[in-house]
Amino acid sequence: MPDTTTGFGFRRADFPQGFTFGAATSAYQIEGARFGGAGPSHWDTFAATPGNTVRAEDGRLACDHYHRWPADLDLVRDAGLDAYRFSISWARVMPEGRGTPNAEGLDFYDRLVDGMLARGLAPWATLYHWELPAALADLGGWRNRDVAGWFADYTALVMARLGDRIHATAPVNEPWCVAWLSHFLGHHAPGLRDIRAAARAMHHVLLAHGRAIEVMRGLGLGNLGAVMNFEYALPADESAESEHAARLYDGIYNRWFVGGVLERAYPEDVLEGLGPHMPDGWQDDMALIGQDLDWIGINYYTCKRLAANPESPWPGLREAPGPLPTTDMGWEICPDGLLHFLTRLKDLTSGRLPIVVTENGLAAATPLEDRERIAYLEAHLGAARQAIAEGVPLAGYFIWSLLDNYEWAFGYEKRFGLVHVDFETLERTPKASWHALRRAMEREPVTAQEAR
Ligand code: FCB
């Protein structure tokens, strides 16, 4: 039995009125890509290639959310949350990535969104959480400039159908992962390790973001944002080389994307390395990339310690272990980094844009008592409260994730869920963190005086 006596030290009432609490998931990680006429994506083929994912696991079945979504949405509502952040699979609604839509796929998301509304949950949609249709990967995927146009057409199709009921939308989840992690480090689909591919993806992913925002504004839709991931880059030691390494890592990971989206400019130190590999005429795209947004989403998990690696070509970086306790991902638990980025984004936007933590959470294999998750969330929500106290316009916080799910190259081993999933039976069991959250989310009874 879960230990349901452990609780959070905060309550909903400790946050400003109207603050949004939610849980986040993504399509490929939970739905079951083999159902409902979805086309193959580059994650299916990446996982089918030896050595890319743990035990060659893929998201063909995942949590079978495709069939079990009503019970899953009940779990979001019953935790007392206000909102649900989900993603739409491009390969499900357009199996070839372009051309004929899959009516079954669109109907699925139609029912899902109605299901959220019926439960009083605000739908927060992400249009791309990494499952590029394989047919588009054949054409060069994120390396091909045309991807921005394909993505714009897909955006138009989806939002013409769902846009009237979506509360908030972001085109792309975590452009750093789409571009750098997948085309330079090779850890995610399509598994490339090539600087030219990476430079093109770094630009095209933001161009696709810009085109999608343009399309959605054209449809009259509002509450549009960008969801970026941030890692707190710290020097591994006090040397000038390590300082420089941390600064460059911050440039590639953090400043490139906020630079493009918020300032219409890429950082000079990163352009020093990527410039020769960038697509011709990229400078002309910056106005489209940096269109006005209504909110900024920050996905935050950890910090990194950086040192120079003089043996290696640009960027010449090496990661070093740090002193803080780590999660099952080996990621240091560093809530200070969340406060750092919340403050930094506030300063960068002069406090004029609402900021939302769109993902935060940890992998912990502990069974249902789940103390590590409670402690991690408590610490990061503490940083969030401090940021609010310091004047950051923080409007919401989403926990990654509702369910244990397919953690990409790590397969099903890394458990990020508030709810345990038995991957043999697919049975869901709320963990102690879910129970604790439910208690913290309870609304204070309205006093007779307030009611008057
Ligand atoms: C984020 C991703 C999400 C999940 C978490 C752990 O980078 O958006 O899909 O993998 O990390």
Spatial gap, N to C terminus: 43 Å
Query: What name is given to the CATH topology?
Result: TIM Barrel
According to DSSP, the number of beta strands is 11
- Are any ligands bound, and if so which? beta-D-fucopyranose
Q: What is the C-level CATH assignment?
A: Alpha Beta
Number of domains: 1
Strand content: 15-25%
Secondary-structure arrangement, i.e. CATH architecture: Alpha-Beta Barrel
Rg, alpha carbons = 21 Å
Order of helices and strands: EHHHEHHEHHEHHEHHHEEHEHEEEHH
Number of helices: 16
Structural class: alpha/beta
What profile does the largest beta sheet have? 9 strands, mixed
Rounded mean pLDDT is 97
Q: What fraction, in percent, of the residue positions are helical?
A: 25-40%
Poorly predicted runs of 5 or more residues: none
Q: Any idea what the shape is?
A: globular
Fourth-tier CATH superfamily name: Glycosidases
